[in-house]
Specification:
Layout: E1 5-7, E2 13-16, E3 37-42, E4 55-60, E5 72-74, E6 95-97, E7 113-121, E8 126-135, E9 142-146, E10 150-157, E11 159-164, E12 167-171, E13 175-179, E14 185-190, E15 196-203, E16 227-230, E17 241-247, E18 250-256, E19 263-268, E20 273-276, E21 297-302, E22 309-316, E23 319-321, E24 338-345, E25 360-363, H1 373-379, E26 387-389, E27 393-399, E28 404-405, H2 407-411
Parallel strand pairs: 9-17
Antiparallel strand pairs: 1-16, 2-19, 3-4, 4-19, 5-18, 6-25, 7-8, 7-28, 8-15, 10-13, 10-15, 11-12, 11-14, 13-20, 16-20, 17-18, 21-22, 22-27, 23-26, 24-25, 24-27
Bound molecules: 2-(3,6-dihydroxyphenyl)acetic acid (OMD) and fe (ii) ion.
């Protein structure tokens, strides 16, 4: 089934799965068409300024109060929430991992979340968590919502289907999607392949939005029309089901007798959406030098302090390298922001080896990093012809808060204990002559 989507970022959309299900001219009719219930889902305070005011009206088979009966606590030991200091290893350093291995037992998306880092404090709606998901089973009659933040999903192995209250999104590697805070959803595998793996940024703070463009102007980078919001879709299913809730870092479950994905029509601007990273139009240095990676920001979640993101989602897409008399890869640097990186496919230009698709690196607040010895050797001597970096897609979750390692991440068997050796060959080159080499 080819799914349908509506283009635009933050638009006020409207969609109905059954003709006439959406009230016109008002939100709350006395008696809705098809016997549906009207319900508002608020993604911002009622009184937020117009530019950031988000809410949607859902017309559904049952009101959400019927989808959450009595909550019982539930254990999800691998999904951690900030602050999570007592659980993390005290080790400090530049870290890198090979991919998290696929699960051996039956594991669905929810039980397949593995938290790598947490940052900030969920109770104050500040910070984020970097997770990996690995799963091999569909959520059939298991549904979830996360009150702690929105989820940015970044598939790496295999495509997934994300069925939300407001419609269905099929998302494959190179695409990302957002499940808003509080929205019911379930995730299943799409297409062939035993297991699915990807990355997740759980954003506790203000919602992701498009970055300002400044002097770049109205076009390029992530263009609003390339964001796709699903049309209304619903399940009319009377069957034993479970709704799992994440709330202030704790998990609860409630048993119900039907699917909570029962929204037949909706309108509003608080919505899930997906985006293909291949549609990002990178802007970069076309004469010399290496700009800051902020020019590759796809989405930014502001923290309230200008230019200081709660979390930025940044990509390193295919692009031409043309800068003259320039060391073209990332420079050596130290950053007050904390950088969690992953690789969706291909190779990353600062690391010749060791950073593989599905792998991760963590360069925390103020910890030095940059190209490995091989990348330095190559980039500082190569003839500077135009070169296309092709077939590559790396990304970064960059946050103003230090990212605290979970015990899972510290003890993961794929942690590379020799990672920092990648810089061991960077010998002293200072030789007292001004010419360089
Ligand atoms: O560390 C990294 O690899 C990410 C990164 C890339 C870049 O081009 C400049 C700065 C930066 O942090
Ligand atoms: Fe960096």
């Amino acid at each position: 089934m080819a799914l349908r989507y509506m283009p635009g970022f933050g638009n006020d959309f409207e969609t109905e799965a059954l003709d006439g299900a959406l009230p016109q001219g008002q939100n709350s009719p006395q008696d809705c068409a098809y016997g549906l219930y009207a319900e508002q889902l608020s993604g911002s305070p009622f009184t937020a300024p117009r530019g950031t005011n988000e809410r949607s009206w859902l017309y559904r088979i049952r009101p959400s109060v019927r989808h959450t009966a009595r909550f019982s606590p539930e254990d999800r030991p691998h999904w951690k929430t900030a602050p999570c200091l007592d659980d993390h290893s005290l080790a400090l350093g530049q870290l890198r991992w090979d991919p998290v291995p696929p699960p051996e037992e039956r594991t669905d998306f929810l039980s397949g979340i593995r938290t790598m880092t947490t940052a900030g404090d969920v109770m104050t709606q500040a910070g984020m968590a970097s997770h990996v998901y690995v799963f091999n089973a569909d959520m059939e009659n298991d549904y979830a919502f996360n009150a702690d933040g929105e989820l940015l999903l970044v598939p790496e192995t295999g495509a997934i289907r994300v069925f939300t209250e407001m419609g269905i999104m099929d998302v494959e590697p190179s695409e990302i999607c957002i499940v808003p805070r509080g929205m019911m959803f379930k995730v299943s595998k799409l297409g062939p392949g035993e297991f699915r793996r990807g990355y997740v940024c759980e954003n506790y703070g203000a919602k992701f939005t498009l970055p300002e463009r400044g002097p770049i102007g109205a076009n390029c980078l992530a263009n609003p029309r390339d964001f796709k919001t699903p049309v209304a879709a619903y399940e009319d299913k009377e069957t034993p089901a479970r709704v799992h809730v994440k709330w202030c870092g704790r998990f609860f479950v409630t048993e119900i007798g039907h699917s909570p994905l029962d929204v037949v029509a909706w309108h509003g601007n608080y919505t899930p959406y997906k985006y293909d990273l291949k549609t990002f139009s990178p802007v970069g240095a076309i004469l010399f030098d290496h700009p800051d990676p902020s020019i590759f920001t796809v989405l930014t979640a502001p923290s309230g302090e200008a230019g200081t993101a709660n979390v930025d989602f940044v990509i390193f897409p295919p692009r031409w390298l043309v800068a003259e008399h320039t060391f073209r890869p990332p420079w050596y640097h130290r950053n007050i922001m904390s950088e969690f990186m992953g690789l969706i496919y291909g190779r990353y230009d600062a690391k010749e080896e060791g950073f593989v698709p599905g792998g991760m690196s963590l360069h925390n607040m103020m910890l030095p990093h940059g190209p490995d010895t091989m990348a330095f050797g190559k980039a500082s001597t190569e003839a500077l012809k135009p070169v296309k970096l092709d077939d590559t897609m790396a990304f970064m979750f960059e946050t103003r808060f230090p990212q605290q390692l979970t015990r899972f991440a510290a003890e993961l068997e794929t942690l590379q204990d020799d990672y920092t050796d990648c810089w061991a060959g960077l010998e002293r080159r200072f030789d007292g002559t001004p010419e360089g080499r």
